[in-house]
Amino acid sequence: MRVKNIFLIAFLLITSVASAQFDLGIKGGINVNKIDGVSFKDEFKYGYHLGGFAAIGLGKKFGLQPEVLYNQNTLRVDSSYTNAINVFQNGLTNVKLNYISIPILLNYKLVGKFITLQAGPQFGILIDQNRSLLQNGGDAFKKGDFSMLGGVQIKLGPLRVNGRYVIGLNNISDLSDGNKWKSQGFQLSAGLALL
């Protein structure tokens, strides 16, 4: 239900500022992320993201940039952690989490039209859990992740290059052992405005 409301708000904003500057494009890049918690190694792992964005100008300095991204995050389970889910059968210790992420960013132009600061919330919906890895553990992760992100975007004509820091705000563990898992990471991406 929360996702439907987000799409409705994004649609209303897009239609209400149709006369403003509007760009629509595609983007992709790398994720460098980790999960903080006793069950994961304290290391950053690589993943990727692909998707699309809309940039809506709201005056000379401000803008709104909703996006829809497919995010893949890779994690390594700490070998010293043991519990009822028995993730170490067959020597498997890597976990891949795939999310549909919906960031809604407020843009603030710093230097002309070239450098923009970005900040806002991101809603992530878990769409795939490497279930073979979690053998008998049931659902080890909740179905969603709420994050905040901030970063900078450089605009060179239709090309967009950005770097962001993402920090998860909620506990994504669905286990009853009391351990909290929170995500954090960096995203580097390039995009191309098509309209």
Notes on the structure:
The protein is mainly beta and 195 residues long. It has a single domain (2-193), classed as Porin. Helix content is 8%, strand content 57%. It contains 1 helix and 8 strands. Strands 1-2-3-4-5-6-7-8 form an 8-stranded antiparallel β-barrel. Strand 6 (144-156) and strand 7 form a beta hairpin. It is globular and about 50 Å long. The two termini are 30 Å apart. Mean pLDDT is 76; it is low at 81-91 and 131-141.
Order of helices and strands: HEEEEEEEE
* Helix residue percentage: under 10%
Number of domains: 1
Q: What is the CA-based Rg, rounded?
A: 18 Å
The number of helical elements comes to 1
The count of β-strands is 8
CATH topology: Porin
Strand ordering within the main sheet: 1-2-3-4-5-6-7-8
Unreliable segments of 5+ consecutive residues: 81-91, 131-141
What is the mean predicted local confidence, pLDDT? 76
What fraction of residues sit in β-strands? over 45%
- Largest sheet, described in full? 8 strands, antiparallel, barrel
Kindly name the structural category: mainly beta
Query: What is the general shape?
Result: globular
Class, according to the CATH hierarchy? Mainly Beta
The assigned CATH architecture is: Beta Barrel
Measure the end-to-end span: 30 Å
